């Protein structure tokens, strides 16, 4: 199962006007549990952040978090990078259209070749590391690019079924719900060891998408995407579907983000230089 065809379809719908794009961001912030966890962590970091902080969104995608960051810290300078030139061009056009081109910019970049030194107070990486084989090289590049005292914030699938392979991921030929992943997910010890080896300190890694979050993800993401991949006609009934499941999803997301989980299909990691 692949996200990209669905992403392109949704992008066409919500990219018609800047207001629709902003609405799309707000819907993603409400529906996607990872966005709840990321916003909570960013708000916490922002309390002690420099007023002129420099931020790197490493794998910016639609630019959802860059928009949020631009509102959270109006004096911050934010750069989003991604490997897909069409998304970079799209984001630059949008942020120019809303007058934020001086604060938020986007560039095409391969994180395994990132070559910056002491540049950023915060590096954000959401749903990126599971796509990169040379993850330790990327962690090294992040460490080099960060200022002393800077923070790295990562959201990624865990090895507890984060790519929805569950108990079958060792069987030959078996793939997960997300086919683009090069690994099923990280364990807490695994990613902590890799970041420590790179030089990071004060590393905190915890599970997200516990029982309530996993159910919310199935209701709001997995099942709709499965149906959209089966037939584009589901776009017609999609609003009604979300109208029905949305209240339940909000409650489940709230429960997940305000609970500690012994296990879960996601990981949220913070590490400091």
General description of the model:
This protein is α/β, with parallel strands linked by helices and 273 residues long. It has one domain: Rossmann fold (3-Layer(aba) Sandwich), CATH 3.40.50.150. It is 47% helix and 18% strand. It has 9 helices and 7 strands. The chain has helices at 4-14, 18-31, 33-46, 64-72, 85-97, 135-145, 188-198, 211-230, 234-257; strands at 54-58, 77-82, 104-108, 120-126, 146-157, 201-208, 266-272. The protein has a 7-stranded mixed beta sheet with strand order 3-2-1-4-5-7-6, sandwiched between helices. β4 (120-126), α6 (135-145) and β5 (146-157) form a beta-alpha-beta unit. α3 runs parallel beside α4 (64-72), α3 crosses α9 and α8 runs antiparallel to α9 (234-257).
User: Got a strand count?
Assistant: 7
State the end-to-end distance: 37 Å
Per CATH, the class reads Alpha Beta
Instruction: Report the average pLDDT across residues.
Output: 88
The proportion of strand residues reads 15-25%
Biggest sheet record = 7 strands, mixed
* Poorly predicted runs: 165-179
What general form does the structure show?
A: globular
Corresponding CATH superfamily = Vaccinia Virus protein VP39
Number of helices: 9
CATH topology: Rossmann fold
Output the radius of gyration.
Answer: 18 Å
Topology of helices and strands:
Blueprint: H1 4-14, H2 18-31, H3 33-46, E1 54-58, H4 64-72, E2 77-82, H5 85-97, E3 104-108, E4 120-126, H6 135-145, E5 146-157, H7 188-198, E6 201-208, H8 211-230, H9 234-257, E7 266-272
Parallel strand pairs: 1-2, 1-4, 2-3, 4-5
Antiparallel strand pairs: 5-7, 6-7
Helix pairs in contact: 2-3, 3-4, 3-9, 8-9
